[in-house]
């Protein structure tokens, strides 16, 4: 699984016109370039820092440049940064879907979603980090900033490969995995775990994270078209079960899936966590502009 995650120029331009709306922005170790939405925020000058690729060149103080020969940008007291962390589930269950013409592979779709959200944050002068997990955290991409860093993010996601098993709570509960600073954490997964999902969400919330749950499901999972006597095999455990597919069985499956996703959505809503279902047959940009904007996370 190594498809190029680089986005075309039209998509990048549309993403730059959107921005992440966090409930709480924090002042980090480096001040950002995004204005705070808190009422009464000051516009007073605070400090200078060296220009970094991706910064707005209009903020360069040319008088200081003339004296020092170095490009410095101005920082103001109301400019606060957001640290965005993107976690992509690479367990085997995510490496499915795409068998029908109207959908795509779930892992490919999740990686493209993460690439899009990451670019949007980088273009908005926020800081972005990323990670992959199966049963454990398999790799992480250190926090970076500026649009010029998008290439590193795209390359990182392009090289992400599926693993065999997954354990959300075990992976993100590893020592040193939880962020030390407040921020926003996006989880891209099918969340088809027997346990550990709610515990993980509570753990992230306790770490002062504004959590966004993106449940990626394929048309084959949402609306299965199966008939006859089949042996269904769990792609992660390898265990199987003989099933005689019928309308009654498919109805029971649909009710169970709706119950599970509904419970997850309800749990998130009660705790102020953003939940969004991402069917892989909806174009990524269309899903972002529609579903995520209506959720209030993006504008």
Give a nutshell description of this structure.
The chain contains nine helices and ten strands. With 299 residues, the chain is an alpha/beta fold.
Question: What layout of secondary structure does this protein have?
Answer:
Layout: H1 9-16, E1 45-50, H2 62-68, E2 72-76, E3 83-89, H3 106-123, E4 127-133, E5 137-145, H4 150-158, H5 168-172, E6 183-189, H6 197-206, E7 209-217, H7 219-222, E8 228-233, E9 240-245, H8 247-270, E10 274-279, H9 284-295
Parallel strand pairs: 3-4, 3-6, 6-7, 7-10
Antiparallel strand pairs: 1-2, 4-5, 8-9
Helix pairs in contact: 3-4
Spatial order of strands in the largest sheet: 5-4-3-6-7-10
Class derived from helix and strand content? alpha/beta
Give the quaternary arrangement of the chains. Answer: single chain
Low-confidence stretches: 26-42
**Helix fraction bin:** 25-40%
What are the secondary-structure elements, in order, as H or E?
HEHEEHEEHHEHEHEEHEH
Q: Mean pLDDT, nearest integer?
A: 83
Number of helices: 9
**Number of DSSP E strands:** 10
Rg, please?
A: 21 Å
Choose one word for the global shape.
elongated
Intertermini distance: 32 Å
